[in-house]
Design a protein that fits this description.
Helix content is about 40%, strand content about 15%. By secondary structure, it is of the alpha/beta class. Strand 4, helix 7 (about 170-180) and strand 5 (about 185) form a beta-alpha-beta unit. Helix 4 (about 65-80) crosses helix 10. The chain binds pyridoxal-5'-phosphate. Pyridoxal-5'-phosphate (PLP) binds near residues 114 and 211.
């Protein structure tokens, strides 16, 4: 992409980043370069393979020009120094944990974190002698009191992708940095479009590209971006040691998704917020969990730090009866039951956060469902939810 004097806007970046038609026969999209073996010109070139690892490639696991088209574009979107691509969002989360923590170290992990991240701490890190303390997502600067001599990382996710608490990321970063501890963030919900993680002080910004970047429910991808070259090299070394990588075909699909990401995200965000407001106060609904709703406990922090909201939110149904929740979910025709989110189609999953909490117990009355709002007509989605609630109340 040609560099003008003026800094381009995000949509311009999404439309053009990673595309180099002048170097590619005028073809708009980067080709899919598939590779295991990368040849060296001569022995002198072979001797330089070590340096090439950080900025180029020497073997297929480093990626190919297709991978670099994607990671370069994401890096610009994030405003970082380097981006690494992984085979899934979860692989992108576990990488910094493995890289920065070793036996005897301590990790501060937000209590509202994505379930599989918690499972990794409890099963794998514990087995390796790393201690995890879960902290209250509402703690903010108070995390300073939990930092120990051996604390090596503070991990955040805001809002929590099941219960939607918003964290005070700048306060947490200030507290952690004051003690020389880096901060990682799972920024999958807002994406760099709606929350500037690195700009707010985060050292390692993580996105499950599976969700809004891919956007079409047909790929798995994780992305890790740092704002510091030393950190980038450290994570890259661990990635190479582990052997995780993503196929160039997936990167090409992700680049295609990226072109429309801004449009999709804004549309889905608006539709989700309208549905959330419409659900609030309806018969059968106890509480709607969506930080962009005025009156939500996280609303003030969301307003201060975020520039938009995405298409995922929670609804606490006004029932304690699992059969009533099942009747609601089963009655839905457009919201199909399924994990993942960020795709073009609406989804619903029942969720029970209580067993996943320890620092701030989940005591909400009523049963939770999580909705992913897709690109369908808003009135159709509303009608679907209306008939679901009717069915639930008739039970
Ligand atoms: C889905 C998700 C992930 C993991 O992404 P995968 O590609 O499915 O492994 C990580 N964090 C959050 C918040 C997610 O919703």
């Amino acid at each position: 992409m040609k560099q003008g004097g003026r800094k381009n806007g995000t949509d311009t970046l999404l439309a053009h980043a990673g595309s180099e038609p002048d170097d590619n026969f005028g073809i708009v999209n980067p080709p899919v370069y598939r590779a295991s073996t990368v040849l060296f010109k001569d022995m002198a070139d072979f001797a330089r393979r070590g340096e090439r690892r950080y900025s180029g490639f020497s073997y297929g696991t480093d990626g190919t020009p297709t991978t670099f088209a994607l990671t370069g574009a994401v890096c610009r979107l994030e405003g970082g120094v380097g981006t690494l691509a992984f085979s899934s969002g979860l692989a992108a989360i576990t990488l910094p944990l493995i890289s920065l923590l070793s036996s005897g170290d301590h990790l501060l992990m937000v209590d509202s974190v994505y379930g599989p991240t918690r499972r990794f701490c409890d099963q794998v890190l514990r087995g390796f002698g790393v201690e995890t303390t879960y902290y209250d997502p509402l703690l903010g600067a108070g995390v300073a009191d939990l930092i120990r001599e051996n604390t090596r990382l503070v991990f955040t996710e805001s809002p929590g992708s099941l219960t939607f608490e918003v964290q005070d990321i700048p306060a947490i970063c200030a507290a952690a940095h004051g003690r020389g501890v880096p901060v990682a963030m799972d920024n999958t919900w807002a994406t760099p479009l709606f929350f500037d993680a690195l700009g707010h002080g985060v050292d390692i910004s993580i996105q499950a590209g599976t969700k809004y970047l891919g956007g079409h429910s047909d790929l798995l991808l994780g992305l890790v971006t740092t704002r510091d070259q030393e950190m980038f090299k450290r994570l890259k070394d661990t990635k190479d040691a582990l052997g995780d990588c993503v196929a160039p075909d997936v990167c090409s699909l992700a680049l295609r998704g990226m072109r429309t990401m801004g449009l999709r995200l804004r549309h889905q965000g608006r539709a989700a917020l309208e549905l959330a407001a419409w659900l609030q106060g309806r018969d059968g609904v106890r509480r709607v969990l969506h930080p962009a709703l005025a009156g939500d406990p996280g609303h003030d922090l969301w307003r201060r730090d975020f520039t938009g909201s995405s298409g995922l939110f929670g609804v606490v149904l006004d029932t304690e009866d699992p059969a009533a929740r099942a009747a609601f979910v089963d009655a839905l025709e457009l919201f199909r039951i399924g994990f993942s989110w960020g795709g073009f189609e609406s989804l619903v999953v029942p969720a029970d956060p209580a067993p996943l909490r320890s620092a701030r117990p989940w005591r909400e009355q009523g049963l939770l469902v999580r909705l992913n709002v897709g690109l369908e007509d808003l009135e159709d989605l509303k009608a679907d939810l209306r008939q679901g609630l009717d069915r639930m109340r008739k039970l």
